[in-house]
Design goal:
Blueprint: H1 4-15, H2 21-30, E1 35-40, E2 52-54, E3 57-63, E4 70-72, E5 80-85
Length: 89
Amino acid sequence: MINHMLLCNVIQQAEQGELDEALLGNLRSAHPGVHFTLCLDDDITVNAKPVAERPGFNIYLVNSSDHCSTLTNDPDCASGIVLAQLIAD
């Protein structure tokens, strides 16, 4: 489950710096048990809607309860967060 406070904390940390491996490491240390992934928003190939949109990045939720991970908009079944960087054209 990804609660609102966790999501707000992740957004705040992502807004304060670069979307990079250091940020992922900090998030993983602060929130054990939550899976964090970093990618380009263009890598999200399914018709998924971000749960949060910010200048420079979008946030998606991941459900890993089944054999394959899938994107979800249901925070109650989410187990991970994708930070998807937006690249200006």
